Fold this sequence. Notes:
Layout: H1 17-26, H2 28-38, H3 43-50, H4 57-74, H5 81-107, H6 114-132, H7 134-139
Helix pairs in contact: 1-4, 1-6, 2-3, 4-5, 5-6
Amino acid sequence: MFLPSDYDSVGRLKLPLLFWGVLILQARTWVLFVIAGASREQGSALLALFYPDRDTFWPGLLVGLPAAVAFMLSGRRQHWPVLWRAWRSVLVATQLLLLLWQALLWWQGEAVTGVTLALLIADVYALWWMLTSRRLHGCFQPEND
């Protein structure tokens, strides 16, 4: 089913590289927040560029929390197997929520730009991949399966 190189030295299935990209995509507001904090002089200008309406910044941080938790859980998934197994569903639901939120923002009159369109395409692809990837699904299964 999987290649020997797909397993780590302990025998657990390695998380695919695209999984980390999906987590960054889901936690994009957190990534921007950290970058803005690191560049103190231009931080507020950077946040204003991506979040001209400050009311969407805080929900963006909230929606990014499951991805941040997944980053922390991923290295210790063997210690919390039930939580880890359920977290795939949380990440899929979060991705669906991101898509619905983007549609709601557009419906409320937010401009459709190249960046928002690219994020929508990336969000749709991420959702499709999380639902169809056998390897990702295997990473969330108990080790004895």
